[in-house]
Amino acid sequence: MIASPSIPWGGGPNANENSLSGYHAVWARDLYQVATAFHAMGDRASANRALDYLFERQQKPDGSFPQNSWVDGRPVGGGLQMDETAFPLVLAYQLQRADRNTWLKHIKPAADFILRKGPYTEQERWEEKAGYSPATIAAEIAGLVCAARIAALNDDRQSAQTYLMKADSWASSLDRWTATSNGPLARGNYYLRITENDSPNDGGKIEINSGGGTYDEREIVDAGFLELVRLGIKRPEDPLIVRSLAIVDRLIKVETPGGSGWYRYNHDAYGERPNGSDYDGRKGVGRLWTLLTGERGEYDVARGDLVAARKQLDAMMAFANDGLMIPEQVWDRKESPRPEFRFGEGTGSATPLAWSMAQFIRLAVNVKQGHNVETPNAVAARYLHGSTNH
């Protein structure tokens, strides 16, 4: 359940040599994705082993989780990504892990950490920028609501109330923190990829990693706000979601021979260089991320369009190589500077990427079931149905 058994863009030391971990490490976020795929398939044992690993190997004494770790639990990266502290709480709720030891030793410390540090994150899910991220805040809200349910089952009403009050406060402030109303991409408000502070209208500058340039943060968008739908915080027909999605499709969507693909965000520089040479940490071009097609498919499931969702599933299958392995990224244009790069097929990025594979599995199950099985009932009940009984 490491991020990938491959080495992106080749090279690197032999497997028996000491080295940086690369993708041969465990990210709590990726492991959550993999665990939800196992759970969706009905393999609760594997999903529970993943949660055991998160709690017993990775979790720090302060309740947080490292950016990533070696398989034995030793931290590798030093970043703090708040969604990685929140997702284990959602997974614990989904797996009904509400025993008192888990509550006191793992759930409560993580939820309390989110209270102290959130909603701001030192790194968002792309591991690059600090600030207020719609995707990260969605995970934090869902994590607190799930933790509140487990707190209530353990008769800790005070903690439950505290978590719910904070989750509600963040849910009501989310749009004000992360959606600009004076940006240049459209009339009306739309979600940004991330804002450095809680003022999305101030025209703050954002520097794109890997030498991608510096831009007004109001010019940079991604589809991370779809996590608000997947996690049960916003309805798919919410006007701000729909308006933001139209901008995403205009700026970062590409139709490949196999189906629709999306960039992580506009001006992304994490990918092969323009001449097709390997990514080397600077001046690359971010290509299409296969998992984003799966996320769009789950949005289609949420809005009841299973035909559209199945098209996204078919696209993910088209992105796979001859060994049925789904890559991290696929080539994004008809023109190719190298014969091995074909429009809509894998690049030199991580192949297979565990998150991509998990996203495909989960979407397949969700299409069959007709709903997103990993959406936590407690969150949807609170924000979509106005109920507090879950």
The fold-level CATH name is Glycosyltransferase
Q: Estimate the helix proportion, in percent.
A: 40-55%
**CATH class, anyone?**
Mainly Alpha
How many structural domains can be distinguished in the coordinates? 1
Distance between the termini: 31 Å
Please sum up the structure shown:
The protein has 390 residues and is mainly alpha-helical.
Topology:
Elements: H1 28-41, H2 44-58, H3 82-94, H4 100-117, H5 134-153, H6 157-178, E1 179-180, E2 190-191, E3 205-208, E4 213-216, H7 227-230, H8 239-252, E5 253-256, E6 259-262, E7 288-289, H9 290-302, H10 306-319, E8 329-330, H11 354-369, H12 377-383
Helix pairs in contact: 1-2, 1-3, 1-11, 3-4, 3-5, 4-5, 5-6, 9-10, 9-11, 10-11
Structural overview:
It is globular and about 60 Å long. The model has no long low-confidence stretch (mean pLDDT 95). With 390 residues, the chain is mostly helical. The chain is 44% helix and 6% strand. The strands form four sheets. It has a two-stranded antiparallel ribbon. Strands 3-4 form a two-stranded antiparallel sheet. It has helices spanning 28-41, 44-58, 82-94, 100-117, 134-153, 157-178, 227-230, 239-252, 290-302, 306-319, 354-369, 377-383, and strands spanning 179-180, 190-191, 205-208, 213-216, 253-256, 259-262, 288-289, 329-330. The chain has a single domain (28-383), classed as Glycosyltransferase (Alpha/alpha barrel).
